[in-house]
Amino acid sequence: MKLLLIGLNHRSAPVEVRERLAVSKSALAEFCRALLAATPLREVVVLSTCNRVEFYGVAADAAAASLALRRFLCAQRQVPDSVVEQLYERQDADCAQHLFEVAAGLDSMVLGETEILGQVKEAYQAAQAAGATGMALNRLFQKTLAAAKQVRSQTAITRGSTSVGSVAVDLAEKIFRDLRTRSVMVLGTGAMSETTTRALHSRGVRRIVVVSRIPERAQVFCDELGARAISYEQWEREFTAVDIIISATAAPHPIVTRAKLEPYMKLRRFRPLFLIDIAVPRDVERGCGDLDNVFLYDIDDLQQIANENRAAREREIAACRAILATHCARYMAWFVQNQAALQQRYGVAETAA
Amino acid sequence: MERNLLWLAQACYAVSGILTARRLRAGGPPGAGQRLTEAVMAVGFALHTAFLFMRGEAIGRCPVTNPLETTAFIGWSAVLFYLLIGSAYRVSFLGAFTAPVVLVMCLVALVSFADVHAPAAPGTSRSPWVDFHVAIAIVAYGAFALAAVAAGMYWWQERQLKSRRLGASFLLLPPLEQLDVITYRLLVVGLAMLTLGMLGGLVAYWLARHGTLPKMVWAWSIWLAYALVVAARPLWAVRGGRLARLTMLLFAVTLLSFWGISQIPNFHRPAP
Questions:
Q1: pTM of the entire predicted model
Q2: Do A272 and B161 lie within an 8 Å CB cutoff?
Q3: CB-hemisphere CA count at 13 Å for B241?
Q4: pLDDT-derived band at A123, boundaries 50, 70, 90
Q5: Alpha carbons B26 and B46: distance in angstroms, whole number
Q6: CB-nearest partner of B177 from A272, A292, A297
Q7: Which ipTM score applies to this complex?
Q8: Contact yes or no for A256/A228 (Cβ under 8 A)
Q9: Of A215, A259, B87, B148, whose CB has the highest number of CB atoms within 10 Å?
Q10: Cβ–Cβ < 8 Å for A220, A200
């Protein structure tokens, strides 16, 4: 018996191709059953995320199973041969190692991201519910989930955020005790300020004040994030009540200066203030960051931290692979030892394996 | 014999400190390493407690008869406070930082001061007011020591945030606001206890003329300084970085001046 993987991901295929083969979460179980019926695969798990569509299977004849799977996809998804020709293929140890690395986030677009582990678990559970898994894939996916958890707990592969918005949130969480009770003022409504505000909103920030010269842009914040819009002339009046300011205006000169900020800090009784300046040219005078309890980060600072975190994660790859290789070797040893049992279970003659 | 227990306790605190330093450098996630650090610290605390208990048994009174014993008692109080509040605030790293501070305090005391016992004057040293005054005041200094540790963590975390250079320890340290709250609450608790201790000292002086002028001037000066720091928050909005720096400075001054003034002859003896 052979372990087989056929799939595509964000590196091998553009989103236009990935979306044509993607399987929705609700359709996963049915899709697994259809695959078992239409191909020589004896076990199958379908992993479908934004960045990858992968089919993990067990078959007596890997070549025949691969061909049948590709034909099935062409027919079922109505895609031309050129699409299924782009699918990559792995077998046995390469297949297992690939799955271990996927679940550990080593193959993700954002190295070390943790969402994939949940997606692998969901894919496995859907296949299991459909009766599409047997002793080979059950063991493989159970070992995969355990290995990924070990990698997360024993290495720094998930440490530190790697996007500007998430870095800003990490910093906010290191300044304030509880973001849910904090208020944010958004000055200027560009894409970056929206991303950063959304990141803060996802961690519990609910009091958001948005200041924009473009009412339509401000409306997006009001509708989707429950923000309160105020006019540009009013923003300084709100200043003493907010804890975090995200500034991204198109002003040609700093709009928050040290001279302006100092009296406000006294009015705030020196409560901490986090200034996130993502405007170019910058909105906040650099000297503001020297004031007591004021923490100022501009776009370059945030980008640099994100880059450093990314580099730190890349340095962990070797340690992660070492852990995963041990799990992979153990699994493959079991897989080889249990060939006879697998063949017997699936009624395969020994020569076919 | 009991001095060996104190040395062993310091060895545990040293191991705990080394484990902490390694975790800070590596910046790894909390787990088995953290539990080991806490276990070693707990063993250190048990040995530390055994030292104070045996010394108290040996001299027949509260073991604060010389700078070594007093420093050891303050360090013990700091660890005790950590054990009491550490779980409440879920800041296990506070304990990890406490171990090295207590270690330094006790090592300085162990190697710098002669471990001799001032004989108690009849009728004075056994006064319950003296023991009350001393014990409560020392527990208060333990609170101030832990406040200084929390303030040190604040200072370190603030330095990383201000300089925009985030080390491996950045993600392990608690948020600044939490450290600020812990520091201030410890200062308030410490001041309340010190006030009680000082009142007990006044009663002891009134009943038995126990105490010396330099000691009283020093003690009330320290009380006044801490009272000002505690009052500075509501009155002048002294918080965050400024509170952290003041707290660390004041504890350093308290400890150094205590060690200095302890060298005055008859410091611990009752007034004639």
A1: 0.80
A2: no
A3: 17
A4: very high
A5: 29
A6: A272
A7: 0.83
A8: no
A9: B148
A10: no
Q: Which residues lie closer than 8 Å to A128 by C-beta, 6 or more apart?
A: A138
CA A207 to chain centre: 26
CA distance B143 to B73: 12
Token representation of residue B237: 């909005």
Q: Residue B272 has what pLDDT?
A: 41
Provide the CB-side half-sphere exposure for B169 (13 A, CA): 19
CB–CB of B249/B147 below 8 Å?
Answer: no
Task: Give contacts of A289 with chain B, Cβ < 8 Å.
Answer: 162
In a 10 Å sphere around its CB, with 0-12 CB exposed, 13-18 middle and 19+ buried, how is residue B260 labelled? exposed
- What would the two tokens of residue B216 be? 């009283």
**A-B contacts at Cβ under 8 angstroms:** 61
SS (HEC) of chain A: CEEEEEEEECCCCCHHHHHHHCCCHHHHHHHHHHHHHHCCCCEEEEEECCCEEEEEEEECCHHHHHHHHHHHHHHHHCCCHHHHCCCEEEEHHHHHHHHHHHHCCCCCCCCCCCHHHHHHHHHHHHHHHCCCCCHHHHHHHHHHHHHHHHHHHHCCCCCCCCCHHHHHHHHHHHHCCCHHHCEEEEECCCHHHHHHHHHHHHCCCCEEEEECCCHHHHHHHHHHHCCEEECHHHHHHHHHHCCEEEECCCCCCCCECHHHHHHHHHHCCCCCEEEEECCCCCCECHHHHHCCCEEEEEHHHHHHHHHHHHHHHHHCHHHHHHHHHHHHHHHHHHHHHCHHHHHHHCCCCHHHC
Residue B164: DSSP 8-state: T
| A59 strand-pairing partners | A2
Element at B63 (helix H, strand E) = none
Contacts of A271 in chain B (CB under 8 A): 239
Q: Is B239 on the interface with A (CB under 8 A)?
A: yes
| A344: pLDDT strictly greater than 60 | yes
Grade residue A91 by pLDDT with cuts at 50, 70 and 90.
Answer: very high
Tokens read off for A346:
């699936």
pLDDT in the model for residue A219: 86
- Using a CB-CB cut-off of 8 Å, the residues of chain A touching B31 are 153
What does pLDDT average to over chain B? 85
